[in-house]
């Protein structure tokens, strides 16, 4: 009987650790997506202006990249790398579009990037559907 209680306690501890770990990583993912999306929104506002200034757009793109690099290093521990690579690919395309002053194409890549980030956030959420 004592062995059964030990096993039950160990099981509860393991489940608690998994749930707490998931809550921590989910909160980090939500914050990261929010921050990156916010910077991307500022970039969109800049490149959608009638007379877009390339230097301002480049500075904002640099901010986006800095935030991405900061968040990527932590998210890489617990999010599938192919998902993160999709975001990186869209950011690379976006940067090239800004460098070439192809702002219409840049907005498309920016929207795609935000969509992928939202997908990552939803995919990592602890939901009954995701468990089963």
Description:
- The two termini are 32 Å apart.
- The protein has helices spanning 2-47, 54-75, 81-99, 103-124, 128-131.
- Helix 2 packs antiparallel against helix 3 (81-99) and helix 3 (81-99) runs antiparallel to helix 4 (103-124).
- It has 132 residues and is mostly helical.
Structural class: mainly alpha
How would you state the average pLDDT, rounded?
88
The coarse overall form would be rod-shaped
Individual helix count: 5
Note the run of SSEs as H and E: HHHHH
How would a crystallographer describe the biggest sheet? none
How much helical structure, as a percent, in the residues?
over 70%
In short:
With 132 residues, this protein is mainly α. It contains five helices and no strands.
Please specify the SSE layout and strand pairing.
Elements: H1 2-47, H2 54-75, H3 81-99, H4 103-124, H5 128-131
Descriptive keywords:
single chain, about 130 residues, mainly alpha, 5 helices, rod-shaped
